[in-house]
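Dig into my protein:

:::
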Amino acid sequence: MVENDPLLNKYSMVKGAARRARQLQSGAPPLGVSKSLKACLVAQDEVLAGKVTFNMAGKKIVPPASM
């Protein structure tokens, strides 16, 4: 990840993906096509593709779609 990365660090990406994985396991539909059927990998793909946004400390984080 680059210094100007809107995800701030790998930890914040993992936190966002973990929350999305819980949503997927609870029955939420996937937001796109993924190579995996596992919720954790589908969630990571969605976050890195910019299909999922999340709030962190009052700031809305929107990952770039170019990752």
User: Anything to note?
Assistant: The chain has a mean pLDDT of 79. The CA atoms of residues 15 and 54 lie 9 Å apart. The first strand starts at residue 54 and ends at 56. The radius of gyration is 11 Å.
